[in-house]
Amino acid sequence: MNKVFPDANAALAGLLHDGMMIMAGGFGLCGIPEHLIAAIRQSRVESLTVISNNAGIDGVGLGVLLESGQIRKMISSYVGENKMFADLYLKGELELEFNPQGTLAERIRAGGAGIPAFFTRTGVGTLIAEGKETRSFDGETYIMERGLVADLAIVHAWKGDREGNLVYRKTARNFNPIMATAGRVTVAEVEHLVEPGEIDPDHIHTPGIFVQRIVHPTSFEKRIEQRTVRKRGA
After folding, report:
1. Is 0.85 topped by the overall pTM?
2. Cβ–Cβ under 8 Å, residues 167 and 200
């Protein structure tokens, strides 16, 4: 089956609607599905709940959807690089569900594995635990966290074949693989598109059964979130 679409707009056609929940892969600015995010902005779909470790930076990544006012709620772990995010939240214009980073990762992994809930010690005795069920195991208190499943997962892979088998590179392997399993529909943008059989089966991170649509953009912008430099020696 050829799952490849000509561009990001075509790959998302018929999938977007107001009020939907979207998982967006990436870590910082590494491995973000920038072309699919741009297509979501062009679609003008509204009132989105977006699950992502962070929210990009101002004007980049999910920051463009914050600028356009299309995101109603973020389920995230770290958002400290985005000034617009902070401004919208403090004004009461953006809802936020904060998660410890490991808890967020496990909620997504659990959703993809068909696990509706799990117990963790992380957050016990803090604001994170408010309103959540608690249980005692081996003399320790745990709180219950729900697994996450999204209407749509958008991910970025370094390499993929036409059947949807994906390989991620380095830090981009952080949230993209688990999100690919936790979307009711998963759309992947890939940097290098190859034919089935060209990827060593032992190197595949996401099997094609989890991926419904693929787009292969011709260019990608590799941004550095925080550039740190030093003077050259004599």
Report:
1. yes
2. no
